[in-house]
Amino acid sequence: MGNKENPHVLVVGGGPAGSTAAALLARSGVQVTLLERDTFPRYHIGESLLASCLSTLRISGAYDKVAAHGFQIKRGGYFQWQHDTWLLDWDKLVDAEAWSWQVERAEFDDLLLRNASDQGARVIEQARVTNIVFDGERPTAADWVKAGDDTVHTLEFDFLVDATGRDGLLAKHFGMRRQHPAFRNVAVWSYWKGAHLHPDSPEGAINVASTEEGGWFWNIPLSDGRNSVGYVVSAKLAAEKLRGHDSRQSYYLDTIAASKPMTAMLQGAEQVAEVKAEQDYSYVADRFCGPGYALVGDAACFLDPLLSTGVHLATYSGLVSAAAIATTLRGEMSETDALAYYEYTYRRAYTRFLSLVSRMYEHYVGSEEYFAHAHKLTEVYQGDSPEQSFTRIMAGLTDVGETAGTQERTGTEVIASEAERLHTDPDTDGVNIKYMGGLDMSPVWDHWRDPLVDTDMGELRITTEPVFGLTTRPRSDAEREAVSRPVLPPRHGAGAAH
Fold it and tell me: Which residue ranges are recorded for the region named Disordered (predicted)?
């Protein structure tokens, strides 16, 4: 690899992870084909973006298209969790330029897919992959068919990016996906007109309110005046509750009526869509990459909707994988080393969020202890307080800072040890860890632990100057300018919360 004049990368899946990887590789001069099973735009849940997405959109070329669309500006979150209230104002706790959007995913994902095409990727929709051809463990070709046509097309490639989400093309092939015994939750949601946010919320903030039975609500304002309102609870409890209702609609409205915060936010509002439902569970692949392939986004791992990490992890993995692949294809680094960096980086991000979400569900004993725990999961940025550390993590900025070289990289040992303890320790500080206990995750952590520690790769980071990829050199002034954050949007411009 690296010596071939025109290497070809196949991306399977056109969601945010696949579209981001395809756009970045195409911008780097790589020949890219993206096969997407559906026709975009198509509906998808997961509307709340983290601030980290802006820098990735800028590097991939999609930022201007997304910014011009008029999505609802988001500047933080307002959490009513158990007996605590968290006012997570990104302006005040992190940075005045930390913001993102609440998006209609059908439109957002479509913009990202079209951007991949605009950057030079060959995008084929309604294309279903039926078979992957391997040479040993290395994929070398894909058979695919177009919807409504039985003709089998075979496409040879030099590298495969699996962005097939929960379908898990390669994870299922290799039998390497592990489901966490918990996070088996059910989400039910609909859309409302005339809903409100809590009056103390930052502009466009996601509102989260927990319930006594262990579930939680989201309330997300969208640009068209609708609010996405959903409820997440364990599948077991949902099944018990549903038996007492004649429909999902009845169950959904009953859960809202039982919640004082949600009753207040929906006072005078009108439900304008049918109730949708989806079963959530958390899983992780034993490895995120191998000879000639990388798993990105939900194809590698799925966490939980609680901290709105879905699009962040998708675009972040697309960014890091593309940097590793582009560097390898130019012959600047061995495939093994570049992919080790990808594995290290993406799993670190996922596992840090896993630890935080686990503690929110089962080990939450107050905001002070919880923020202190988050503080331990990162190298503290410029004297951040525990609350600031948590907010920086949940805005996605810790991950971006670590890969860009603007923040010290957190060692895997700190994060892996905590995650491993949550899986194996039945009792921590007197609190039973029901969510994570009982699953042997040692193959995952053993494969991951510090692959870069004893090599020159310890200072590796993502660069955009002079080319996109991985580097060990210090950041230049030109690079700082190239990846600088976009100009602040107006405070109450188009798409502001009603």
Answer: 472-498
Same domain as 273, residue 125: no
Question: Which of 223, 255, 280 is the endpoint of a domain?
Answer: 280
CA of residue 5 relative to chain centroid, distance = 33
CATH, residue 394: 3.50.50.60
Is 497 within a domain? Answer: no
Residues of the chain with pLDDT under 70: 1-4, 181-182, 280-281, 363, 422-458, 477-498
Q: What is the pLDDT of residues 24-36, one digit of tens each?
A: 999 999 999 999 9
CB 152, CB 263: distance < 8 Å: no
What number of H helices and E strands is found in the chain?
Answer: 17, 26
- Residues 191, 483: contact at Cβ < 8 Å? no
Nearest CA among 98, 78, 73, 101 for reference residue 88: 78
423 to each of 37, 241, 280, 307, 442, how far by Cα in Å? 36, 28, 19, 20, 10
Q: Which two tokens stand for residue 296?
A: 């990105």
Separation in Å, CA 20 to CA 38, 285, 457? 17, 21, 24
Structure tokens at 159: 């590298």
Report how far apart, in Å, the C-alpha atoms of 133 and of each of 5, 150, 329 are: 22, 19, 21
For residues 276 and 290, membership in a common domain is answered with no
Structural domain contains residue 2: no
Nearest of 54, 72, 34 to residue 312 by alpha carbon = 54
Q: Are strands 159-162 and 8-12 parallel, antiparallel or unpaired?
A: parallel
Quickly count: other Cβ atoms within 10 Å of residue 413's Cβ: 12
Number of domains in the chain: 2
Q: What is the pLDDT of residues 242-286, one digit of tens each?
A: 898 999 999 999 999 999 999 999 999 999 999 999 986 688 999
Domain range enclosing 400: 8-175+282-482
Tokens 């802006």 label which residue?
54
For residue 457, the model assigns a pLDDT of 63
pLDDT at res. 75: 97
DSSP per-residue letters across 309-335 = -HHHHHHHHHHHHHHHHHHHHTTSS-H
Coil, strand, or helix at residue 11?
strand
pTM: 0.92
